[in-house]
Amino acid sequence: MLELKIQCQDADEARMYLNAVQYHNLLDDLRNALRSAQKHGTDQDVVKVVENFFPDITIACDNHQGPY
Predict the structure, then answer these.
(1) Pair 22, 67: CB distance under 8 Å
(2) Looking at residue 14, what is its pLDDT?
(3) Among 32, 42, 30, which residue's Cα sits nearest to residue 66?
(4) What is the signed CA dihedral for 2, 18, 26, 54, rounded to 10 degrees?
(5) Cys staple from 45: which of 5, 19, 23, 37, with CB 3.0 to 4.6 Å?
(6) DSSP character for 19?
(7) Residue 6 confidence (pLDDT) above 90
(8) Where are the chain's structural domains?
(9) Residue 66's pLDDT is what?
């Protein structure tokens, strides 16, 4: 059994720590999509990737509750 205790000032700070894996997944997905678009696509493909991820990144930044 594993018990984890995180002491935080408030619920928002706790959510930030608890959603760290979701943030990492979002950034990793973005990185992989950008790398693929740069390697195999055009500049327009890179822009499309950014446009596709922008709403999820905005949600993660505004709400501190990752999109995934």
Answers:
(1) yes
(2) 78
(3) 30
(4) 170
(5) 37
(6) T
(7) no
(8) 15-63
(9) 46
Two structure tokens written together for 32: 């992989």
Q: What is the pLDDT of residues 7-62, one digit of tens each?
A: 888 887 777 777 788 888 999 999 999 999 999 999 999 999 999 999 998 888 77
Q: The tokens 């720590």 sit on which residue?
A: 17
Instruction: Give the pair of three-digit tokens for residue 62.
Output: 């505004």
- Mark out the alpha helices in the chain (DSSP H runs): 11-18, 20-40, 43-63
25-30 own/partner pairs: CB under 8 Å, 24+ apart: 25/66, 25/68, 26/53, 26/56, 26/57, 26/60, 26/66, 26/67, 26/68, 29/53, 30/57
Specify the pTM: 0.71
